[in-house]
Amino acid sequence: MAKSPIVEDGLVVGTASNKYESKNPISQYLLRQFDQSIADLVQQAKPKTVLEIGCGEGHVTNIILKNSEATIQAFDISQTIVDIAKSSIESPRVDFQQFNIYDLTEKQTADLVVCCEVLEHLETPETALQRLAEKAAPYAIISVPREPIWRMLNFIRGVYITDFGNSPGHIKHWSQKGFIQFVEQQFEIVSVKAPLPWTVLLVKSKQFN
User: Fold this and answer.
1) Total tally of structural domains belonging to the chain
2) Least enclosed by CB within 10 Å: which of 69, 74, 178, 182?
3) Are 87 and 96 spatial neighbours (Cβ–Cβ below 8 Å)?
4) Cβ neighbours of residue 62 under 8 Å, at least 6 residues apart?
5) Per the domain annotation, does 185 fall within a domain?
6) Which structural domain, as residue segments, surrounds residue 62?
7) What global pTM score does this model have?
8) pLDDT digits (tens, 9 = 90+) for 21-68
């Protein structure tokens, strides 16, 4: 059964399902494929500095730590979620802060910007994508659920039935092709990973010279 999402000020800010904790062997296998995709792309980028936008409870942060020697600034819109991440990861290479993706103009660039499972929650992902491109010097790793496969798998496992499998807080939906076309507005595609049911991209900012 899916966990209730953490909601603050009308926004879903916490993990809307137990995808990171599920004991189901199929769910664990799918998550391992996602984790390996992130790890491979971090190793490919070889960053010394990382900005992680929407760090959540720190799952992807931990993958970045294990697959690079980078210093990491990890942000999330929710102080509650930031506190959870801080309690789960203690490393001198990581600085967790409460921060909104739309305010990224106030932050320095980084070798690698990471934004996983965030854009589908935003009313204006176009603005967020532009902010990511401004800070990526030159690389970014960006992922979203791959639709309609994401909703179909939710429906099959019997969760969010009344919403036709749509996870709480997901207001934007992309197929793999559609997401690549969306990201190409601001980035050049370097590598595409397709761990079911996600699209994970390593991209290079067109704004970087």
Assistant:
1) 1
2) 69
3) no
4) 88, 89
5) yes
6) 7-205
7) 0.89
8) 666 677 788 899 999 999 999 999 999 999 999 999 999 999 999 999
